[in-house]
Fold each of these.
Amino acid sequence: MGECVFFLARAARMAVSRLPNRKRPKPTMLKNLCVFCGSRVGANPLYAEQTRRLGATLARRGIGLVYGTGHIGLMGVLADAVLEQGGEAIGVIPQALVDRELAHQGLTQLHVVTSMHERKALMAARADAFLALPGGYGTADETFEMLTWAQLKLHAKPVGVLNLAGFFDPLLAWIDRCIAEDFLKPRYRQFLLVENDVERMLDVLTKAASVGERSL
Ligand code: AMP
């Protein structure tokens, strides 16, 4: 019996190894999380409070932060919290923003690139999942780029929003409207993972990143 189970397991492994690359599940882990968030702290003190909690939790779980390098707004709050708790913060920033002296000076790694496009591509490549916190145009732009790349099957990394104080409710309503008006396939709704608690959000992203290639 034991021999039979061993044989079946080996046959299954061999069958998987013969699959063409694109059919093979790609197991990933949540080693680095890319966070998009405001260059301002926002009106509700809950945003900075929960951003600090996220930073401390990332450090405690051994998950590296990839982010836009700013030392201002929620970005600065997040990076400071990660570094204070002994975690890793990797910044990617275009030279133009460094020149405006907006770069955090104490990061674990700093990548200076030539353009915003190059920055987004490098942030995406370095991360295993993406998370948006409250923010403005920049946060929305980065989050939607990752969602559209997922829709185009350019990556299969999970994208989440931390819906603090219902901040993203209007965005979720807009997505529902896109589906209702046939601009978005209903199955694409699941690309966006929504939670309002830091620990639960990280659990969900970790699980989604570990599943490997999701059914896109
Ligand atoms: P916003 O949501 O418009 O405040 O923009 C924040 C997002 O855009 C962040 O996720 C950053 O990647 C990027 N960003 C905007 N302003 C800056 C800045 N001054 N320094 C670094 N990144 C920035």
Note: Confidence is low (pLDDT under 50) at residues 4-9, 11-27.
Amino acid sequence: GNKAGNVNTFGKTVLVLGGDGFCGWPTALHLSDLGYSVVIVDNLSRRKIDIELECESLTPIAAPSERIAVWNALSDREIRFEFMDVAHEYWHLLELIKREQPCAIVHFAEQRAAPYSMKGSRQKRYTVDNNVNGTMSVLTAVVESNLDIHVVHLGTMGVYGYGSSGGKIPEGYLDVVLPSGERRSILHPAYPGSVYHASKCLDALLFQFFARNDGLRITDLHQGVVWGTFTQNTMRHELLMNRYDYDSDYGTVLNRFLMQAACGLPLTVYGSGGQTRAFIHISDTCKCIALALANPPNRGDRVKIYNQVAETHRVRDLAALVARKTGASVHQIPNPRNEASENELDVSNQNFRSLGWDPVTLEESLLEEVVGVAERYRHRIRRDKVMPSSFWNREREEACRANA
Ligand code: NAD
Ligand code: USQ
């Protein structure tokens, strides 16, 4: 394996689709810092959804041009920005690819919140339209450009489904014995738990097809729940600050618990809290992308799939940990989601481990840092955005409303 630091990035351009988002922004800075020429492509749909949901990032985030200018001034590098809807401006995307001739495209540009994708029929349809069309446009444009571009996509652990792991979850493929007795390695079956997760399963089928039919070089990263907000690069200036979502649609569970602890709110455990999920810190998201870029598949290879996870935890154990550290109280509330109430989760992350990745885990100091950020900005919290407001089905909605 090729360790990221050993790669010659000189003259190499990377497009970061969705580079204004929570994972995309710190990754764009990290890749720029490593010497890649970075072009952020984003239609700012996430900032517009903030307006729709009447809730902003807990941390104040600067406008794209403002924060890019700050980075360019202090890093002596140059990030550029293209305002574009990658799902619906195909010709614009193709032109950009032909002009920039990137060695790789990192694709974060999707609607990524499971609760938002279940909010109503408009949001369900928007999520599939945006995510599947975006992926389709990227793949088609790469074929059309006739350039040998490595596509790195941010997928999710949720494609495997939770609750029926049947042992350690492998990295994308399952060895099976067909009825004929023949052995075969197949794409792991998809068990999406939300419309958002279903859109990622559809993406995965498109990757499989384009890798086989057109020989595209594709890496799909099945990432766990991301926590934290700061990275070394975003800490270099106040105006480089990253997003911190805390509302019930976009806030991920550990960041929500840390926010709740900082504001004196009870920690909202959905159901029994027996759900086990995989976690990764935002700084490791950036490192894993760099490692994936440094280790592309060869032309003709099947899609390279990595599980991008550091550790697994049960939701109620996370709540107990945060409560112990901060004195917060824990509230079990009816689960707005339709998911297994208890599940085991054992995940292989051997692919990244074999490249020397040594992930950070739930260290006390990092947890304290996040609580510190939440305390600093707690005056910005809209308390009416903390309780669940998206429900998986009518039964869940009635149970939640009856409890409210
Ligand atoms: P985010 O919503 O903060 O960022 C996504 C960015 O993509 C936003 O800036 C948005 O404006 C942009 N975007 C969306 N649709 C677009 C389009 N059609 N054209 C151009 N830009 C578009 O989300 P995030 O947390 O940074 O997640 C990024 C990716 O990582 C997603 O694909 C998500 O599925 C995956 N992921 C995230 C997590 C997590 O916990 N945050 C975990 C696993 C996987
Ligand atoms: N949960 C609570 N209380 C809360 C919020 C969540 O108990 O206040 C529970 C949920 O019911 C769920 C678990 O915590 O069982 C995780 O929820 P989450 O919102 O943190 O994560 P999820 O909806 O799975 O989605 C997030 C990202 C998504 C990414 C996914 C990775 O938003 O983009 O794909 O994590 S994974 O979960 O591994 O599929």
Note: The mean pLDDT is 96.
